Amino acid sequence: MARVAAIIPARGGSQRLPRKNIEPVLGAPMVSWSVAACRESAYVTDVYVSTEDAEIAAVATASGATVIERPPELAHHAVFKMDAIVHALDTLEKRGERFELVISVQANSPELRGAMLDEGIDKLRAHGLWEVFSVDARLVQNGAFRIMRAEVVRQRALSVHCGVVIADVVDVHTAADVTLVEGRLRARGART
């Protein structure tokens, strides 16, 4: 079976909503929702959380993810998410791990479901794409996930072999976003 790694970058220093990645959403820490979505996927074989924060690491481990310790220089607000993903993949490959696909999954998209990831993986494989990323209902990229062939994770050029999947989820950055997401989750019958 091909290995598919989901990597969830979750630093401790959120600015707009302090401690955002462990902010309770319907009683469960936000990052635990993303871990659960990855574990729901029919294709994701390995779930990792990249963090420099001990409390986030403990939540990630309790949720069923493996923690990759992120160095402090990759844990401040000016660092691009892909730098954390590349660091995590480098760490795993140094351990001898190899993957067909790598998925960057946001810690702050608690509405994400495993079926959304599976739809993206199916699209990537069926059409020979290099990457597939999530967009909202307006077809605007929302960052909930980006599925990439492992060999293109380090590429700096823009890919021309990419597709999209509609994953109409809220990207949580404020307390108001948490309230909105909780209402949307309740409406769909989600429980912690």
Report on this model:
The model has no long low-confidence stretch (mean pLDDT 95). Strands 5-4-1-6-8-7-9 form a 7-stranded mixed β-sheet, sandwiched between helices. The radius of gyration is 15 Å and the shape is globular. It contains 5 helices and 9 strands, in the order βββαβαβαβαβββα. The chain has one domain: Alpha-Beta Complex (Spore Coat Polysaccharide Biosynthesis Protein SpsA, Chain A), CATH 3.90.550. With 192 residues, the protein is an alpha/beta fold. It has helices at residues 30-40, 54-62, 81-94, 114-127, 175-187, and strands spanning 4-9, 24-25, 28-29, 46-51, 66-69, 101-105, 131-135, 141-149, 162-166. 32% of the residues lie in helices and 23% in strands.
Structural features:
5 helices, two-stranded antiparallel sheet, 192 residues, 23% strand, alpha/beta, 32% helix, Spore Coat Polysaccharide Biosynthesis Protein SpsA, Chain A
Quick gist of this model?
The strands form two sheets. The protein has a seven-stranded mixed sheet with strand order 5-4-1-6-8-7-9, with helices on both faces. A two-stranded antiparallel sheet has the order 2-3. The protein contains five helices and nine strands.
What's the structural domain tally?
1
What characterizes the major β-sheet? 7 strands, mixed
Order of helices and strands: EEEHEHEHEHEEEH
Radius of gyration: 15 Å
Shape annotation: globular
Under the CATH scheme, which class?
A: Alpha Beta
Pick out the low-confidence regions.
Answer: none
